[in-house]
Amino acid sequence: MKNIIFDLGNVLILFDPMKYVNENVSSEKREKFLNVVFNSSEWLDLDKGTLSYEDAKKIFKDRLKDCGKEVDGLFEDNLYGMLKPIEKNVKILEKLKEKYKLYILSNFHKDSFETISSRYNFFNYFDGGIVSAYHNCIKPDEKIYKLLIDKYNINPTETLFIDDLEKNILKAQELGIKTIHLIDYTKLEEELRESKII
């Protein structure tokens, strides 16, 4: 094993929309807010980089006419505030870096990625990566995996991919990449030990 590819959300960075909605949206509006914003096709378009935050705000405010303040709050700073490093997992990167090349393969909004990657030093451990919004495609589209493989001349058979979503794991396996399906982000170190990575 020479390479480890990390997803970001709920692997290295906590992303919990339900917790956010429960803390920032009144109880009678929560379900609708969650569905209209986080479970929408527009949220995926933000990941794809085909929709701007300004345009997304307009769409969501139009659909959630009584949640204008909450939508503004999400896109001003709260979104960045909810994207917190999972400290226990981030600490492992330094040790892994001694032995492996480390890469990112993540579905992520452009604005959010630029903010958090400048805010947190652990991004310096990575040898490179592909973030969906810069390439207009998202996992599990095969194209995004091949972009990473080709750009960094990665041999899939020498590579481990860690992601929290099964559909993304299955696509990596089709390409010959070994995988860890990280269902519980608190178990990353345990999973790496079981796979004899550390």
Characteristics:
198 residues, 7 strands
Helix content, binned percent:
40-55%
Order of helices and strands: EEHHHHHEHEHEHEHEH
Strand order of the largest sheet: 5-4-1-6-7
- Supply the number of helical segments: 10
**Strand tally:** 7
Ranges where pLDDT stays below 50 over 5 or more residues in a row are none
Can you walk me through this structure?
This protein has 198 residues and is α/β, with parallel strands linked by helices. Helix content is 49%, strand content 14%. It has 10 helices and 7 strands. Strands 5-4-1-6-7 form a 5-stranded parallel beta sheet, sandwiched between helices. Helix 1 crosses helix 2 (30-38) and helix 4 packs across helix 5. The chain starts with a strand and ends with a helix.
State the gist of this model.
The protein has ten helices and seven strands.
Topology:
Elements: E1 3-6, E2 13-14, H1 17-24, H2 30-38, H3 41-48, H4 53-63, H5 68-82, E3 84-85, H6 87-97, E4 101-106, H7 110-119, E5 128-131, H8 142-151, E6 159-163, H9 166-174, E7 178-181, H10 188-194
Parallel strand pairs: 1-4, 1-6, 4-5, 6-7
Antiparallel strand pairs: 2-3
Helix pairs in contact: 1-2, 4-5
